[in-house]
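Entry 0007
Protein: Fe2OG dioxygenase domain-containing protein
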Amino acid sequence: MGSALSFHLGRLAVLLLQPLRRMRTESLKSGAMLVSDNLETRAHCGQNTPAEPKFAAQRLICECFYTDNYHIKEVNRHVSYVDRRSFENSEEGRKILTPLGTARRETIIAALEQESRRRHNLLAEALDRSKHIRAHYKPLHPEVYELRAEWIHPELEAIRATLFSEGGSSSQASKAEVRALRNRLREYPPGVFSFPVFTRDFCQRFVAEARHFNESDMPKARPNSMNKEGVLLEECGYYEGLLDPLLDKYLKPIAAQLYPDYGGATLDHHRSFTVKYHEDGDVELAYHYDDSEVTLNVCLGEQFEGGELLFGSMRDCASQTSRYPLRHDVGTGVLHRGHHMHEAVAVDSGVRLNLIMWLRSSTERNFIQPEHGRQRPVKIPPTRGSKAAWCCHFNEQMK
Ligand SMILES: O=C(O)CCC(=O)C(=O)O
Ligand SMILES: [Fe+2]
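Output (structure tokens):
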């Protein structure tokens, strides 16, 4: 309770400072927007490490993040939004608002304003939460915050070995190595690959740790714009010890071979979170595409019926009628392109918990940017995470 109170006092301070932050970002020239400097990332919270800020990372956020792709539920449309006046005066805004009565119009504007505020406050709030968690959270299973050999399913180790069997690097895998890799993976539907990732032991501990965090009074954010339940794993300290190494050592070498045209070889950062479905919370996830080049979706448990993953077509494909259901066992990961449309059907009973990694490539995102007519510096960070300044293209449905 005490830590919850101190967190809320901290939030109050951030809200008071918010106008200053906004002024600062708004005063920056168009192009990449330096949203918040001196962003610290937390020390790994599983180890009770002293809460010293380890480094200062600068984050670049694409200006379109604040303006593009606002979803209006009432009319199921995505729009651009800067502020009320310009929206009401825009052609797009007029088309949507004019046929509606005052009450519905006001509801829509209020929701757009709320979403705009949410986006502007996002980084500062995330930083607050992670500082608070680092300082106050006592994990039940500190061991799941690091990638131990025993957490990795032996099959994934074997899959990785196929790519290095001739002693080279995965980026120069031979044809034989790539064939061997594909032979070990299940591909269904085309372009969607399943393979074991974690051992059951890891999944059980991770689920228990997630429950422990959930039951704590730590501050929690929504994992993305569509799921309400689950946690953002960066804030909880899972990146440095567990997920960054998982990406570097296993996922990137595999994705480099499977998705060379979708940034697979240059994946250098990720947004990772858990999603949770059960009768009394989120039960399903609507058809969508991800804000990622490649996504890894691992089923962690717990016990549930229903909740299958369904895959459709790529986002830009005109026909979106067929759906391919995928069985997803505990510990298994499904790797797919972020723009491969998919949904999760309702759980009939029990609790379904999944680990989602939206894997991203700065190279890819900076490369596509000019096509969208944005003016931004093309800045490709040397590495991900602490040292990375990174710019994203957020023209996506889920954030
Ligand atoms: O619930 C699932 O398995 C799907 C989650 C998902 O698609 C996402 O978070 O992007
Ligand atoms: Fe998704």
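Curator remark: Confidence is low (pLDDT under 50) at residues 9-60, 370-399. Residues 288, 290, 295, 342 surround fe (ii) ion (ligand 2) (CB under 6 Å).
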